[in-house]
Structures are given as C-alpha cells and as structure tokens.
Amino acid sequence: MTKVDYDRALYYTHRSEWDNLLILMVRTKDQFLSKKIEMFLHSYHFEKDYSVIEKHLYGLLRYIDHASAKLADELVLYG
Q1: One matching Pfam family, short form (predicted)?
Q2: I want to staple 56 with a disulfide (CB 3.0 to 4.6 A). Which of 24, 40, 62, 72 is the partner?
Q3: Are 6 and 67 in contact (CB under 8 A)?
Q4: Could you count the other beta carbons within 10 Å of the beta carbon of residue 52?
Q5: CA 64 to CA 11: how far, in whole Å?
Q6: Between the CA of residue 39 and those of 8, 9, 31, 56, what are the distances in Å?
Q7: For residues 56 and 25, what is the distance between their CA atoms, to the nearest angstrom?
Q8: pTM for the complete prediction?
Q9: Residues 7-40, buried b or exposed e (16+ Cβ, 10 A)?
Q10: Helical H runs in 1-79?
Q11: In angstroms, rounded to a whole number, what is the distance separating the alpha carbons of residues 7 and 9?
C-alpha cells in the first residue's frame, strides 16, 4: 500500500469531500480501508442515530492512524 491512500482518506474526511472519499473507496487496494470508508459513508447517509455515525467515523480514523503508523514502521525497517 502507499501512504497516499491514507493521506487522501484523512484529507477527504476532514474536508467532508464524500464524493472523493467514495472514489478512493473504489480505487484503493487496501480492502480494510475500503470497508471502513463504506461503513462510514453508509451510516453518514442513512443512519439517524449520531452515535452510530460517530462510531464509524472514529473507526475509520483509527484505522487510518494504525495503517499509516504500520507503513511508516515498515519503511524504517526495510528502507
């Protein structure tokens, strides 16, 4: 994976660019990132309970943080 996907996901989420986030969901090779984006966008558009939307948003943000950190560690180890 490239760090660009995670940076884009974070940027699009921060800027509320849902169309671009949807395109990223389809194009990324990271299936976990794709699923997290899908779950968030679905809850954002169809869920009435804000706590569910918040749960999926935080899940997406936690995964982006985790994957970015893991990728950075791999780059340090394997240069």
Answers
A1: YhdB
A2: 40
A3: yes
A4: 14
A5: 11
A6: 17, 14, 12, 6
A7: 15
A8: 0.91
A9: ebbeebbeeeeeeebeebbeebebeebbebbbbb
A10: 3-14, 18-27, 31-46, 50-78
A11: 5
* Token digits of residue 31: 């299936």
Q: What is d(CA 35, CA 25) in angstroms, rounded to the nearest whole number?
A: 8
pLDDT for position 40: 98
Each residue of 26-67: pLDDT tens digit? 999 999 999 999 999 999 999 999 999 999 999 999 999 999
